[in-house]
Amino acid sequence: MKVNGKHYRSLWWVESRGELEIIDQRWLPHDFRIEALTTMQDYADAIVEMRVRGAPLIGATAAYGMALAMAQDPSDANMDKSWDFLDRTRPTAINLRWALNRCREALRPVAEGNRADVALKLAHEIADEDVDICHSIGQHGLALIREIAAKKPVGEPVRILTHCNAGWLATVDWGTATSPMYQAFDAGIPLHVWVDETRPRNQGALTSWELGSHGIPHKYIVDNAGGHLMQHGLVDLVIVGTDRTTRRGDVCNKIGTYLKALAAHDNGVPFYVALPSPTIDWTVDDGVAEIPIEERDAFEVTHVQGLNADGKISTVQVSPNGTQGGNPAFDVTPNRLVTGLITERGVCAATPEGLAALFPEMAKVSG
């Protein structure tokens, strides 16, 4: 997508320096900063500190981290050590382990002298595949938006609510939940997007920044406004992303997603999840019982970052002194609350049968 008229991906390889550059998302939407990752610790810190964030982008970053590891020391021992080092960075998003496993399985039979080149090529492939996957998700989501638009009076927008940031900043490009929005807007379909703030890190501000850069009409709303809007018929559908989805269609996403799904179910609003296939964990059935939920630092809850009166980025405390903060980063939405899963292969029911029909080769292996 574009920033100030220039096309960017969320990460890119600088061949001349042999370095990965990223958009450091900690400073958005107020400051656009680019950072180079040059050490394994840089890669780990970028993931842990959410300089890069979003399941697909975390996976792609980890793949480039494995490429750096193989350039430094292509031995089996270092491969396993680097796999473990990166795997420990964040526990919930399955794309991280998916990318690490894919790299290790591909590199294990390769001669050590060739591993650096093979690993870098594979990282490029994983990044490019993510772009293609997200574009295809957008195509299938566009069809859903067209159906709703066709039933509305001419010129009346399709009103979409989204939670967190499942945009191009959370992937390599296009985004998952936002890809249908971009493609619908570019196709001339009137849109209005309700953007949840998504406390505590306010990732909705990233979505708002993205949509604004693309010219898509939207409003930034507090997390608790969604149910009210649905009650009053102001939401036509909900589209969110996912960090891990079980083989039966339970969806793990940013904290607060479950509440949106409950409100949508109670008000008859379609609730869709944009789902890249690498985020499917075929080893997990019951998401509530089996998916580990990351507990992040309470500082993210007790403090808020933003622009101060002088136009500078600063952090302020919003809680009383001594108050403890709890910060579960994700929740799980049971499949019964999900209208459908928008994947790169089409839209399916959030059921074992629905997913298996679209991805029979993956479901077979998992079974």
Automatic annotation (TrEMBL):
Keywords assigned: Amino-acid biosynthesis, Isomerase, Methionine biosynthesis
GO MF terms, alphabetically ordered: S-methyl-5-thioribose-1-phosphate isomerase activity
Pfam families referenced in this protein's UniProt entry, alphabetically: IF-2B (PF01008)
Biological process terms in GO annotation: L-methionine salvage from methylthioadenosine
Reactions mediated catalytically: 5-(methylsulfanyl)-alpha-D-ribose 1-phosphate = 5-(methylsulfanyl)-D-ribulose 1-phosphate
Enzyme Commission number(s) from the entry: 5.3.1.23
Highest taxon in the source lineage: Bacteria
Known pathway: Amino-acid biosynthesis; L-methionine biosynthesis via salvage pathway; L-methionine from S-methyl-5-thio-alpha-D-ribose 1-phosphate: step 1/6
Active site per UniProt: D243 (proton donor)
Site residues, Transition state stabilizer: C164
Function: Catalyzes the interconversion of methylthioribose-1-phosphate (MTR-1-P) into methylthioribulose-1-phosphate (MTRu-1-P).
Similarity field: Belongs to the EIF-2B alpha/beta/delta subunits family. MtnA subfamily.
PANTHER family noted in UniProt: METHYLTHIORIBOSE-1-PHOSPHATE ISOMERASE
NCBIfam families the UniProt entry points to: eIF-2B_rel, PRK05720.1, salvage_mtnA
The protein's name in its UniProt record: Methylthioribose-1-phosphate isomerase
Record organism: Cohaesibacter celericrescens
